[in-house]
């Protein structure tokens, strides 16, 4: 964490902030786009995939909020004054909500469309968002790892929904 903070550059920080903010748009945009596409093309499977992805992301996010409330782990910059964040995130640290929701979206999308050209960019994006949270100084590695496991696990547990 200290090495990440010490090696920040303005250009990298801009990219990491962009990645960190992208989760809101992608987590909502992917299922919304699939739903609209499924309605327009009268594709029932696409509409079901949209609901599966949206449900997975929403449920994993709810589980993450519950865990955050129970654990109340302080942010890295609160526990260690040597860690200087790019911005001061609110709430608590464990687990990372960004990692939870992005990995849930990536896993559910990959389950719905199991092609390399869906899987690779999905997980590259989710991993990049998770890394950005550590780079920005607002999460520990265990926060993002747990979020990734929670999000991926939720998508796998809800996989039967895509077949309904």
From TrEMBL:
GO terms, molecular function: hydrolase activity
Main location: membrane
Bilayer topology annotation: Multi-pass membrane protein
Compartments where located: Cell membrane
Record's protein name: Phosphatase PAP2 family protein
Boundaries of every Phosphatidic acid phosphatase type 2/haloperoxidase domain copy: 50-159
Lineage top rank: taxon: Bacteria
InterPro entries the record matches: PAP2/HPO, PAP2/HPO_sf
Swiss-Prot/TrEMBL keywords: Cell membrane, Hydrolase, Membrane, Transmembrane, Transmembrane helix
Species whose genome carries this gene: Mucilaginibacter achroorhodeus
GO cellular component terms, A-Z: plasma membrane
């Amino acid at each position: 964490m200290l090495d990440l903070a010490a090696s920040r550059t303005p250009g990298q920080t801009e990219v990491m902030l962009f990645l960190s903010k992208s989760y809101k748009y992608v987590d909502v945009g992917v299922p919304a786009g699939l739903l609209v596409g499924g309605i327009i093309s009268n594709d029932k499977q696409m509409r079901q995939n949209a609901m599966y992805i949206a449900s997975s992301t929403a449920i994993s996010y709810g589980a993450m909020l519950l865990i955050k409330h129970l654990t109340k782990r302080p942010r890295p910059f609160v526990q260690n004054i040597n860690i200087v964040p790019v911005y001061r995130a609110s709430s608590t640290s464990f687990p990372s909500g960004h990692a939870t929701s992005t990995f849930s979206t990536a896993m559910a999308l990959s389950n719905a469309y199991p092609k390399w050209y869906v899987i690779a960019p999905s997980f590259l994006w989710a991993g990049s968002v998770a890394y950005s949270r550590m780079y920005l100084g607002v999460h520990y590695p265990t926060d993002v790892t747990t979020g990734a496991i929670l999000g991926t696990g939720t998508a796998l547990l809800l996989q039967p929904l895509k077949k309904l």
